[in-house]
Amino acid sequence: MDCPNAFFSGYDINFCNGLAVTDVIGHEYGHGVVYFAVPGYLTYYGESGALNESYADIFGEALENYRDGSSDWLAGEDVNVGGLVGPLRNLQNPSALSDPDKFFSSNFYCGTEDNAGVHTNSTVLSHAGYLMSEGGSFNGCSVSAIGKEKQEKIFYRALIVYFTSSTDFNGAYSALNQACGDLYGSGSSDCSEVKKALQSVELDQGGYCSGETEIQPCNSNAPVVSGVSDGATYNSDVVITFDKGTAALNGESFSSWSTVSEEGSYTLIVTDSVNNVSTTVNFTISKVTTDTPSLAYSVSKRAKKTIKVTFLGRAMSTKKNYVSARLGGRKVKVTRISNGGGNFTVWLNFSYRGWPIGNYDLSVSYKKKVGKSWQRGTLGKTGALSII
Question: In the beta sheet, which residues pair with residue 387?
Fold first, then answer.
């Protein structure tokens, strides 16, 4: 082990003498949390690697706050060994140490060293974490503090529920907004501040290395979109309007007062070229509802549950013994079906003892008689159940 250094190996945490200080311990432990929380791990390169390092710094500040009752938002400020003198990063004001405070910062590193700048570029998200927790004005945005506890919970839920091994900055923007909506309601004041904090560091834009044009965030001249909210999921058709500009939905031209009805995930970008501002809204249409979207991880023998899943507008004439279901590839028992109100509803009973934390897709297979022949099909829902 070359000193001075500290690292998580995938099996253990290692520290040279003088580096086992509170936030560095939390940082390396945080790498372990990320390693086991994200299926396939959060790739340690480029934007994904920068998110990995950012999360480690956020965990370091969380441990410092837990242990000392406060955090200074300086990573490794107590380090002073072998020529390595802290602080190593400033999460409150990254530019003070020549690190990027936003995605379009000229301090953002576009090369290949240090796994494409994972340590340098980590401060973009870390800065947003600081603004969420403590509040402040930055890059034209005024963010009100939601506090450390809520900020930490949002970051953790985004990590364990929505992150994948390839999540990049734009993916983290969506994941953190979704996590906030899960915990505090997508229309809440807390989630409004979370969104502003993320937009202030331009996590929803293309970034310094993209060659795209930087768009001023939190601008009152930005187009106003109605009919959908960022990070929301809808169980029916939506009619979308916007007050000015031109729009693209998943890259295709889109007109105001148009209806979106197909299931899927959507990104709507409305651009006002006169003021050089745009509004981006990410939303999902899922015409499937469940009364139990999540369950707490359990190893108890009593970890059993019956959940109800409804496929809207999909009534069909069939019998229970012609229907089978799987959650995350695991066979579950269909105890009842219903076609009330023009919808198809199934009740699923299963034991989830020891099921790993993560998202579970639902697949419902059926057959029904049409005339003299049998018709077979499958209905599904991505992420129908989360173990948390």
Answer: 295, 358
B/e letters for 349-381, b = 16+ CB within 10 Å, e = fewer, are ebbbeebeebbbebebebeeeeeeeeeeeebeb
Q: At 328, is the secondary structure helix, strand, or coil?
A: coil
Q: How confident is the model at residue 220 (pLDDT cuts 50, 70, 90)?
A: low
Inter-axis angle of helices 189-200 and 123-134, to 10 degrees? 150
Contact predicate 304/348, CB 8 Å? no
Interatomic CA distance for residues 7 and 262, integer angstroms: 46
Dist. CA 174–CA 195, nearest whole Å:
9
Both tokens of 121, joined, read 């570029």
Is the pLDDT at 305 greater than 80, yes or no? Answer: yes
**pLDDT top residue among 162 and 265:** 162
CB atoms within 10 A of CB 175: 22
Domains of the chain, earliest start first: 6-200 (1.10.390.10), 225-285 (no CATH), 288-387 (2.60.40)
Question: How far apart (Å, rounded) are the C-alpha atoms in residues 185 and 179?
Answer: 9
- Hey, is 388 helix, strand or coil? coil
Q: What pTM does this model have?
A: 0.60
Query: What secondary structure does DSSP assign to 258-283, as a single string?
Result: EEE-S-EEEEEEEEETTTTEEEEEEE
86-124 per-position pLDDT tens digit: 788 999 999 999 999 999 999 999 999 999 999 999 999
Residue 350 has phi, psi (to 5 degrees) of -160, 160
How far apart CA 78 and CA 58 sit, in angstroms, is 16
Write down the H helix ranges in 70-226. Answer: 113-121, 123-134, 148-157, 169-184, 189-200
Residue type, 294: S
**Which positions are annotated as active-site residues?**
28, 119
Asked if the model's pLDDT at residue 22 lies above 90, the reply is no
Residue 192: closest CA among 225, 143, 261 = 143
DSSP, residue by residue, 57-75? HHHHHHHHHHHHS---SEE
Parallel, antiparallel, or unpaired: how do β-strands 136-138 and 358-370 relate? unpaired
Q: Is the pLDDT of residue 81 over 90?
A: no
Q: Which of 209, 31, 46 is nearest to 115 (CA)?
A: 46
Q: 58 φ, ψ to 5°?
A: -60, -45
Closest-CA residue to 305 (of 280, 330, 284): 330
